[in-house]
Design a protein that fits this description.
253 residues, alpha/beta, Rossmann fold, Hypothetical Protein, Haloacid Dehalogenase-like Hydrolase, Chain: A, domain 2, 14 strands, globular
């Protein structure tokens, strides 16, 4: 048995679509006795909304960039949360800036607590609901994301302030800046999942296209990205898509 860890946006889910080739390759991988695991910044609600319309089933999920682990049916196995005062401090510091601030928990839609982009929307947080910061901070927040499209200077400002003032883990994901509880990322989440399953020594193949995937690529037996990805110099293989990578691995067996 082998394990494939799959990022969602830009990897399995590209241009708001999961191709038949990718869907069939995941199914073939699982039918061969292997495990397929999502490793994504998406929430439970967002992951379901991405995979279920295309009929894609996975064995486990590493969600919220490693903060929450679930079964394939999204039953929660482990979870962690950001401190409420941390959520409030970050939101208050960057309210007024040209960015959007989202918080997300185990249940319900992602919450938009500051809209500094005049109603612009990203498919990566589809269905987000406008929420008051005071109300949002009172619920258990598993991930906080700041959407900062096209402004490298502002992304740098956010990153420097968060690193200097907050006890959190953070990473860039395309135009998003993701903030997790301290010590949590995709690689750490996968490590915990594999340990809980007794599969610490199982071959692990990782697929992802952005900087928040580097932590899981670092622990992989082999890592894969794509021509459109941001991290080509940090992986073992560049393949056209997930289907090509999984089918190539199956052909070795």
């Amino acid at each position: 048995m082998k394990i494939a860890a799959l990022d969602m946006d830009g990897t399995v889910y590209v241009d708001e679509n999961i191709t038949e080739a990718v869907k069939e390759a995941i199914a073939a991988w699982r039918s061969a006795g292997n495990l397929a695991v999502s490793a994504t910044g998406k929430s439970i609600a967002n992951a379901r909304g991405t995979l279920e319309p295309f009929g894609v089933e996975l064995d486990y999920h590493v969600l919220y960039n490693g903060t929450v682990l679930t079964e394939g049916d999204y039953t929660v196995l482990q979870e962690e949360h950001l401190a409420a005062d941390t959520v409030t401090a970050i939101a208050e510091r960057f309210t007024g800036k040209a960015l959007n601030i989202y918080t997300t928990g185990l249940t319900g839609a992602d919450q938009l607590v500051w809209d500094g982009l005049s109603g612009q929307e990203s498919s990566m947080v589809a269905g987000a609901q406008v929420a008051d910061l005071e109300v949002a901070a009172k619920r258990d927040t598993t991930l906080m994301s700041l959407w900062i499209p096209g402004d490298a200077a502002l992304r740098q400002e956010v990153d420097e302030w968060v690193r200097a003032n907050c006890d959190v883990e953070s990473s860039f994901n395309c135009d998003f800046y993701d903030i997790m509880p301290p010590g949590h990322n995709k690689g750490e989440g996968l490590t915990r999942l594999l340990s809980s399953l007794g599969h610490e020594d199982t071959e692990l193949y990782t697929f992802g296209d952005s900087f928040n995937d580097l932590s899981m690529h670092a622990i992989a037996t082999e890592s894969f990205s794509f021509p459109h990805g941001e991290i080509g110099g940090h992986v073992d293989h560049i393949v056209p898509d997930v289907a090509a990578g999984l089918n190539g691995l199956l052909a070795r067996s």
